[in-house]
Specification:
The complex is a heterodimer of chains A (263) and B (261).
Chain A lengths: L15 H20 L4 H18 L7 H33 L7 H16 L2 H12 L3 H26 L2 H9 L4 H35 L7 H10 L3 H29 L1
Chain B lengths: L2 E12 L2 E12 L3 E5 L6 H8 L7 E6 L2 E2 L5 H9 L1 E4 L11 H7 L19 H13 L15 H15 L3 E4 L8 H18 L2 E5 L3 H7 L2 E6 L2 E7 L5 H5 L12 H5 L1
Helix pairs in contact in B: 3-4, 3-5, 4-5, 5-6
The chains are: A mainly alpha (263), B alpha/beta (261).
């Protein structure tokens, strides 16, 4: 009895694995600090460069406003078209990869693989790949956004499908309904609110990445921005950055207010 | 009279745990049977087996002569179609209106499944039928309400309307009133049995209230630790005998030592 009722010790030595992880992390961190040659001198110079950049950027030059507006519109087009197709393709992929809706284990593993590949490859890399395959311009951007959205949305959709309560689907199965009818009659309606929220997140994410896709030539406002930067027209760049800021904030506000309403 | 549900030495186990240990009974068409038994005695497993939701280890279940065990997927759907299921937790789709939930009951009857049962695309006859089913359970004025806006008793009424919409020949009711208060439970049970009698359906219904069981049933089957312990017409039932169902080793997972202690 006394053996089992001893007070637990205040401190327990961490396991060997924990030691290895901590030491490994510390070593990596220190090596990183050394490799990036951080020095006070460089930071001071960087600060003065930043001041110079800001000095040249203010006041922002809006003389190219029509071009900026055009490019911004193209960015929004890329984002909206890409995210719409991305979300649409995500639904079947998510159904194939969720444990309770997948037809069999092989298909499920395959669908999971497709989803995780599209998630692990960053959007800029997708854009580079599609610039090479379909050429410069918005189509490459749209394809990149589609892949990026699938990686994000399909995963969250399928997690939501797996969380759906069993009862209603069982009730429909017990009426002799087929598998597809059960999915569309019970599982999709139950997941609808969460799927809308995920899709709105995807829109926000897509607009943010569509902005940067232009940097690698996949169309949109990023093209304008990288041109302005390369020509050292920091005042024009500042105008573009301000426009991006406003558009992204406006979209996030709209989408979060919609999300609040449906949840 | 033909049999509605026949169980022949049905055995089901989860891993090492033998849940149904040779259950046999025969319910003739048109009979209303109440299944009694303590929690954990295997009632729910039996109910799920009847619907083909559990795999049998051995034995045979026939629904109107069709064996569940060797049914193909298409056959299984056909068998399920003629079997209405009423759940303890109602199991309505929470995001859909009562009307749409009732319409979904018709899914098994149509080749196109869901397409024939959406409020938008269903035929005029089916829509009228669904409304008639809701009227029959007294919920016509709540057709547009979602389940969350209805009380438990009202939700179970909608679930019964969904069962009616399915037009079954056999009804399985798994503790239909266990999550309702006594008054609502009584009303729902009244409604359920009235509909079963009016339609001439066969029913197997689990309950926990012995007095209600004796009041409604034609016959009582009592289960204890995975076996049928009592099976008798209502007139031959000894109330004291029923109480033994709840005493001693009632659960399928009970250990003999526990009982002795």
């Amino acid at each position: 009895m006394s053996e089992s009722s001893r007070i637990p010790p205040r401190f327990r030595a961490p396991s060997a694995l924990a030691w290895v992880l901590v030491v490994g992390f510390a070593a990596f961190f220190i090596q990183g600090l050394i490799a990036s040659e951080i020095s006070l001198d460089r930071l001071v110079r960087g600060a003065s460069n930043l001041v110079r950049f800001i000095g040249q950027a203010v006041p922002p030059d809006f003389s190219r406003a029509p071009n900026i507006a055009d490019a911004m519109l193209e960015t929004l087009n890329i984002a909206i078209v890409g995210v719409t197709f991305g979300c649409l393709f995500s639904i079947p992929l998510a159904l194939l990869s969720a444990r309770n809706t997948a037809p069999n284990a092989v298909v499920r593993v395959l669908a999971r693989f497709v989803i995780s590949v599209s998630r692990t490859i960053p959007d800029l890399i997708w854009a580079l790949i599609f610039v090479v395959t379909v050429g410069l311009g918005p189509l490459a951007g749209i394809l990149a956004i589609i892949m990026d959205t699938i990686g994000f949305a399909a995963r969250f959709y399928s997690e939501r499908f797996e969380e759906v309560q069993k009862g209603p689907s069982e009730a429909l199965t017990s009426t002799g309904a087929g598998r597809l009818s059960v999915i569309f009659g019970a599982i999709l309606p139950e997941s609808f609110a969460s799927m809308t929220a995920t899709s709105l997140f995807s829109v926000e994410k897509a607009i943010r990445s569509a902005v940067t896709l232009g940097l690698v030539g996949a169309g949109g406002i990023g093209v304008e921005l990288s041109t302005a930067m390369r020509l050292f027209r920091y005042d024009q760049a500042a105008a573009i950055i301000l426009v991006i800021l406003v558009v992204v904030i406006v979209f996030e506000q709209i989408s979060s207010s919609i999300r609040k309403r449906i949840i | 009279m033909s049999s509605a549900i026949t169980c022949e030495d049905v055995r089901v186990s989860y891993g090492d745990l033998q849940v149904l240990r040779g259950v046999s009974f025969d319910i003739p068409a048109g009979q209303g049977v109440v299944l009694l038994g303590a929690n954990g005695c295997g009632k729910s497993t039996l109910m799920r087996s009847l619907n083909g939701l559990e795999k049998l280890q051995s034995g045979r279940i026939r629904i109107h002569g069709d064996s569940l065990a060797d049914a193909s997927r298409v056959d299984l759907r056909r068998i399920r179609r003629c079997m209405g299921y009423v759940f303890q937790q109602f199991n309505l789709v929470p995001q859909l209106s009562a009307f749409q939930n009732v319409l979904l009951g018709a899914m098994g009857r149509h080749r196109l499944g869901l397409l024939s049962c959406l409020g938008l695309t269903a035929s005029t006859e089916e829509r009228a039928r669904a409304m008639a089913c809701l009227e029959r359970v007294g919920m016509a004025d709540r057709a547009q309400h979602r389940p969350s806006q209805l009380s438990g008793g009202q939700q179970q009424r909608v679930a019964i309307a969904r069962m009616l919409m399915q037009a079954p020949k056999v009804v399985i009711a798994d503790e239909p009133i266990a999550s309702l208060d006594p008054k609502a439970g009584r009303e729902v049970l009244d409604l359920l049995w009235r509909i079963v009698r009016e339609e001439g359906l066969s029913m197997l219904c689990t309950l926990h209230q012995l007095d209600l069981a004796r009041e409604y049933a034609d016959r009582i089957i009592g289960m204890k630790a995975g076996r049928v312990e009592i099976d008798a017409a209502i007139a031959d039932i000894d109330p004291l005998h029923l109480n033994t169902l709840y005493v001693g080793m009632t659960r399928v997972d009970a250990q003999p030592q526990e009982d002795a202690a």
